[in-house]
Amino acid sequence: MTPSTGPGLTLPDGFLMGASTSPHQVEGNNVSSDWWAIENRPGSFVAEPSGDAVDSFHRWPEDMDLLSELGFNAYRFGIEWARIEPERGRVSRAAVEHYRAMVRGALERGLTPVVTLHHFTCPRWFSELGGWSSPESADLFAAYAKVAADVLGAGVRHVVTINEPNMVALMHTLMRRAVRKEGDPAAAGGEHTGAAAFEPGSLEPDAGVTRALIRAHRAAFAVLKEADPALRIGWTVANQVYQAEPGAEEVAAAYARTREDVFLEAAREDDWIGVQAYTRHRIGPDGPLPVPEGAATTLTGWEVYPEALGEAVRYTARVVGPHVPVLVTENGIATDDDDLRVTYTEGALASLAAAMRDGVDVRGYLHWSALDNYEWGSYRPTFGLIAVDPRTFARTPKESARWLGSLARAGRIPGGAAAVPGGGPSAG
Length: 428
Description:
This protein has 13 helices and 15 strands. With 428 residues, the chain is an alpha/beta fold. The protein has one domain: TIM Barrel (Alpha-Beta Barrel), CATH 3.20.20.80. Strand 11, helix 12 and strand 12 form a beta-alpha-beta unit. It is globular and about 55 Å long. The two termini are 36 Å apart. The C terminus is likely disordered.
């Protein structure tokens, strides 16, 4: 397989090109978190616990070295609430300093840090209070954000409050169902889970949790802006790319309203909005349809549909409005065929370039994921640009990493023969 050549689309100054991870999925031994408790409970519905993950808690300098050497200029990583506040009201200064060192390390390597405060996992004590269903949830999250501001003060400008709140609200429904079916692996789920095929269309997001997440986001936004008005703050949404079959337009619109639009609308006063897109979901008159017969699928069972990225970016811009810039915070493919990863990513970037040529204000592209890692129940789905040996933790960049890094270094992506008109605004 040989990627297409040619000038492509010249990226605007300040455009972020890099990769993403999340703390629970790469750090390992997140023992104070709710997910660790669930994974390790006797008879848990989680097929495979995270364990050491890929030991990035200790090996983050090597991970950042690789990303920088490959040519990337940005790295999205998270700080883990359960490490910062392992018990209610008890802040670990060692954890705060650990994440401050990561911020400094990224900057020293020429990587713009994009830092996520919440990526699915919570402290165990928070979940025992009721999690996002607790009346205290927004205040508790805002208090954590105030502590996190000390980490961000090491030089961060781009902050994600909550990763994929729409999936968090869906997972709340899923977890309630799974607890009733404890011991059945088919009940497991998560954003990229390999233990089960989590189909967002099969669940309704919890309305109370949806409201709580929006309150928590706004509360954290206010706290962070008070700490540093220069912070550029947003949250990321899992864009499902609902495509209506003939006669199902109203059904598809209803799915989008409850599972996506409410979270996008909540970002209309934010500094940016994160787009996370992988595939499409076709909607018929009775709801979601299966993957088309004969279509190529990923290790998670999703249809290989790279055009989802451009469609998600355009849809997000329509809902949020032109004054809120877009940052692609996740896009990738679960495959053990690295040639397919390049082909998929090339198609995704081409669709992104087309959206940018048509005027969508996109400030960056962060691939999911930097590393093969724990995918919420299984290590089998490999999304990473960098392979990790499960026994030695040795890192080996894939050819896809070298290819994408070369695009980052050159400042252009496939899909266009000219620069964005006017060069486009620089990131944050």
